[in-house]
Amino acid sequence: MNTGGTPGAKGKAEGGRRLRARILLIAFLLGSAVALFFGSPLSRVRHIQVEGTHSLTPAEVEQAAEVPLGTWWFEVKPADVAARIQKAFPLVADVRVHFSWTGSLDISVREKGVVAVFPSGGAWYRLLEDGTALDVVRPGETIGMPLITVGAPPQVTLGKPVAPVVAACRQLALLSPELRAQLAEVHVGDSTMWTVYTVDHYELHVPAQEFAQRMQWFPQIRDQVKDRGPGEIWLTDPFRYSPFPGGKGGQ
């Protein structure tokens, strides 16, 4: 009687042993690779690279990130790093955080643009594109951007939005820097029509809800009426123009 089993059964048993051996070998190699990785400097933050700053410095962003060199990569939570940076700097619009296999923590930031200056309580505040008060203009400092005014200016807190002019700041941010530089003042009188005084003495009346779109019309309309001198322009459809009597300039 043959007690050695069939050739097919022996082959299956041998194949099973080989498969288990391969699995053990692969597991060993993977474990060794993981151990080598976590034992190497590549598993930790070796360098922090900051890009996209203009007003801020890379050192300021790195400090706000609160990720010491030598931190394990799995301890770095990109969303938490981004939140800390944005909390520290209202100027920052977006943050992207990426850990490279070389051990570099790459932080890319996009700063909000400063679009206007807002007078309140005897001080002038620079406003960001979302209406947040960034800082106070120093005496004698060149402004280089339009003034935003309202009937009764509220108290301003740095790092917080100035509620009455948030919409105006967002609209101003949609204008090109060249067009924005032509505006001396934007008066937010009500929610339907805003008044704009330009540096070349025109007084514009612009529908608030379509402010950025209608302001694009101004250069072309000015070219059409410039021979008659500065005046009031209603950026409605169709537009209306009324020259100032006696060559009156803008405010």
TrEMBL record:
Domain POTRA: 43-112
Chief location: membrane
A Pfam family: FtsQ_DivIB_C
GO cellular component, one term: plasma membrane
InterPro entries on file: Cell_div_FtsQ/DivIB_C, FtsQ_DivIB, POTRA, POTRA_FtsQ_type
Localization per record: Membrane
One GO BP annotation of this record: cell division
Regions that span the bilayer: 21-39
Coiled-coil blocks: none
Keywords: Cell cycle, Cell division, Cell membrane, Membrane, Transmembrane, Transmembrane helix
Domain of life: Bacteria
Protein name, as recorded: Cell division protein FtsQ
Natural source organism: Kyrpidia spormannii
